[in-house]
Amino acid sequence: MFPFRRNASARIGAVAPNDAVAAMAVPAAVAMPAPAGRSAPATGSADGAGAPSAVELERRSRRRRMRRTADGILRRVRRLLTGYVSPLGWAVAVSGAAALIAFLPLGWHELLAYGVAAMTMTLAAIVMSLGNTAFKASVGLERRRVTVGDTVAVRVDIANPGRMPTATARGDLPIGDMHERFSIPMLASGQSKETDIEFRTLSRAVLSIGPLRVRKGDPFGLIRHEKRLADRHDLFIHPATVPLATLNAGLARDLEGQPSGDIVDDDLDFYGLREYEPGDDVRNVHWLSTAKTGTLMIRQYEATRRTDTALALSVNPEEYASSEEFELAVSVHASIGVRCLTQDRPLSTHAGSMHATPRHAADFLDSCSMIAPDRDDNPNLVQGTLAHDHDASFYFLTVGSLRGLDSIKRMVMALPRSASTLVLQTDRGAPRAVRRFHDFTLATVGELDDLPLIMGVLA
């Protein structure tokens, strides 16, 4: 559908600017006789080739509007019939009425008993579903970002903003795949009720809480009256992380580097002058200042280091011995990323089809909450990483214990020679170890607490 509606009546008899010459060449009032054996073109045709006239276009537009109106009415009727009466309710009511009708000619008392029972249940369900349910509700989270193992508190506030008292009802709050149901008592005008729900997070995820619905009906499930009162909230359950010391300083004396705060005697970013000390390189003497002060003065520089970092995580479950090992890999990936962002390192992250350049630790951890195993993930982890980040100075690759050493060596060969590469292989329960190769360093992480010790050794 178009975002606007054209006024078809304004187009009747109108002539397009580009067709003005043609309209002047053939007077519209002259009707040319059709040759024998051939029918004349339709009246009002634009070019005599059977094109629909403006009247026909208006008629078609009117039919389309009528069809859309009829479809809307049918949808409303269908919603009205199924929104309050469940399929079970319709089945009981229709079968009860049919039994009562069939009793008249047949005279079977079984049909009478069933019909009376079914209609009684239907009437009782209708009476029990009546009542004022004009509630006003809100759902609040104490924190929208938590870590695995934390306790989450959800507060549900339900109030009666009207003048009439409300009827009793049932509240239904979806929490992920589960549903938290609670009772709502009768509320007087201006009265409210608070319901606190607490649960503990067991695994990393993005948990949907809500929308809150209030249901009024009968215990048989024949009649239902449901209203949506509050919208959905997303709870980010972050992976477990450990604090890390300062990571490796980076590639020194790089034109694209950032000042590190360290004062050295030889670099690219000039910092200041100091007096000469025995052992200083005379090539760093600033002779102009020496001539002015009469004392040998040495140039000082602020060390510049390029710290562009790429984090890549393999999400293929066939590389991991268990789901716990995969979660350990996600935690290792997240811990290094958080440390890079707190050090203001330029960071790019890669996990399956997710590629991002986060600026804040909270946003990065939110994306870690959404990492899921994918059997279709590219087994060549470096190929997907280089497609988005080919000139980083550091590459941190996290893989599972089932990936062999030869596969790791072939994978690392595609990385730039100038970059530093650290492959972190998670192997739950294995002793921590560090092995250095010509092109990369391989670290085995058995527990998350091993990561600070390994990164401290490598720093």
Outline the structure in words.
With 459 residues, this protein is of the alpha+beta class. The protein has 4 domains: 45 residues; 103 residues, Immunoglobulin-like (Sandwich), CATH 2.60.40.10; 56 residues, no CATH class; 150 residues, Rossmann fold (3-Layer(aba) Sandwich), CATH 3.40.50. Helices cover 30% and strands 28% of the residues. The protein is built from 10 helices and 21 strands. A 7-stranded mixed sheet has the order 17-16-15-18-19-21-20, with helices on both faces. The chain has a 4-stranded antiparallel sheet with strand order 5-4-8-9. Strands 11, 12, 13 and 14 form a 4-stranded antiparallel sheet that branches. Helix 3 runs antiparallel to helix 4 and helix 6 runs antiparallel to helix 7. The longest helix has 31 residues. The chain starts with 19 loop residues before the first helix and ends with a helix. The N terminus is likely disordered.
In short:
The chain is of the alpha+beta class.
Keyword list:
459 residues, alpha+beta, Immunoglobulin-like, seven-stranded mixed β-sheet, four-stranded antiparallel β-sheet, 10 helices, 28% strand, disordered N terminus
